[in-house]
Amino acid sequence: DSSEVVPYSFAPADALQFLPRCVQDSVTHLPKEHRRQRALEVGCAVGRSSFELARHFDEVVGIDFSHHFIEVANGIKATGSAEYEALIQGDVKQTRLAKVAADIDRSKVTFTQGDACNLDTTALGSFDLVFASNLLCRLPQPKQFLDTLPSLVRPNGLLALISPYSWLEEYTPKEHWIGGTVLADGTAVDSFAEIQRLLAPHFTLVDRTQYPFLIREHDRKFQYGVSDGTFWRRV
C-alpha cells in the first residue's frame, strides 16, 4: 500500500511502485513472439520483483547474496506475507504486513543465495529475461557480473539493467567502478557509456528510461533517487 510508504498527498507519485514499474516495462520490451518461460532476478532482496515477474513467466529464479533476505523471501513464498517493523520517529515503530497479491502464483518462484559476481551459469542455465535493479553499484566487482550475462540471456532475450550509479568505495573499490571517475586529462567517464561499451559485443540497446524511486527512512524522511533503466537485447 503506497499510503503506508508515504502518507502524504503531495508526495511524488511517480516515484512510488518502483519495482512493479520496472518489471512491467521489462516484460513490455520482450519481443511479442519471444517465449516467456524463464526469468532471473539478481539481487532479489526479499522477492518483490521476483513475485511480480511470476505474473509473466512460467519460472522465476531470485538470487541474493544475503542469507537473511533469502530466508525471508522463502517465508513469504510459503505463507504469502511477512510482518516487518516500520520506523515512525525516534524509537517509535509500527508492525506492518507485506502481502503478495492473491493473483500471483508464488510456486513459480525459487529463491537461492548466491553471489552476483560469481554466478554458476552452468547450474542456472539460460533465461528469457535477466532483471537487475539497483544492484550494479552495490557489487564489489560489477564487471564480473556483466561478463556473465551473455551466458545467462538467451538469444533474442532481454537484459533489464537498472541503476542510479551511486558508486561508493564502501561497496565497490574505486578501481572496479564502471564510470563515475575522472581520467588524468580531466575527462569524465560516464557509467552508461561504459556499460554500453562492455555489453556491445553481445547486446544491443533497445530502450533507455529514467525511473524515480523513494527509499523510506521514517514517516517524515525519504531519499529520492532516479535510476537509469536500460534494456538490452541479446544478439
UniProtKB/TrEMBL annotation:
<dbReference type="InterPro" id="IPR013216">
    <property type="entry name" value="Methyltransf_11"/>
</dbReference>
<feature type="domain" description="Methyltransferase type 11">
    <location>
        <begin position="40"/>
        <end position="160"/>
    </location>
</feature>
<dbReference type="InterPro" id="IPR029063">
    <property type="entry name" value="SAM-dependent_MTases_sf"/>
</dbReference>
<dbReference type="GO" id="GO:0008757">
    <property type="term" value="F:S-adenosylmethionine-dependent methyltransferase activity"/>
</dbReference>
<dbReference type="Pfam" id="PF08241">
    <property type="entry name" value="Methyltransf_11"/>
</dbReference>
<dbReference type="InterPro" id="IPR027625">
    <property type="entry name" value="OvoA_Cterm"/>
</dbReference>
<protein>
    <recommendedName>
        <fullName>Methyltransferase type 11 domain-containing protein</fullName>
    </recommendedName>
</protein>
